[in-house]
Amino acid sequence: MSEETAPKLRLDKWLWYARFFKTRTLAASIVAGGAVRINGTPASKRSTTITAGDVLTFAKDDHIRVIRVEACGSRRGPAPEAQELYTDLEPPVRAAKEKVPHNPAFEGKGRPTKRDRRQLDLSKARHLE
Predict the structure, then answer these.
(1) Which CATH number belongs to the domain containing residue 55 in this structure?
(2) 129 assigned to some structural domain
(3) Pick from 17, 39, 42: which is nearest to 30 by CA?
(4) Model pTM greater than 0.90?
(5) Least buried of 34, 51, 107, 116, by fewest C-beta within 10 Å?
(6) Does any domain span residue 48?
(7) How many domains does the chain divide into?
(8) Is residue 37 part of a domain?
(9) pLDDT tens digits for range 105-115
């Protein structure tokens, strides 16, 4: 009798398939750096295999991702196909970006005149007082 085995896939390849990293080389370097945990255990080898049901924890951008593997996948497909490979256990919370005025608003078209510029500078100086 042949026993059915769960499909397995290399960790770096799965992270690339699931579109967490743009290149497989980048995914492999993140894994080799010890930045990925599988079920709470740090993974340091790129060739570590994962199966459906494993929970991955890794840093991505400015937050920690906790992902449960739902399927191994067979290719790096479009984003909707990649999102079916995992369940996000802790969706990232995006911090509200502070609104910082880069340049003062100019209500005319084009570049402000010297007179307009002086008025803007005066209004800034009054605002700071």
Answers:
(1) 3.10.290.10
(2) no
(3) 42
(4) no
(5) 107
(6) yes
(7) 1
(8) yes
(9) 656 667 878 88
For residue 63, give the nearest of 31, 30, 92, 22 by alpha carbon: 92
The token pair that represents 33 in the structure block: 């750096």
Element of type H or E holding 66? strand 63-69
Tens-place pLDDT, residues 43-62: 989 999 999 999 999 998 87
Amino acid making up residue 20: F
* pLDDT score, position 5: 78
Amino acid found at 121: D
Domain that holds residue 47: 9-88
Residue type, 91: P
Distance CA 48, CA 43 (A): 7
**Which residue do the tokens 């209004």 mark?**
123
Identify which of 18, 15, 10, 8 has the alpha carbon closest to the alpha carbon of residue 47.
10
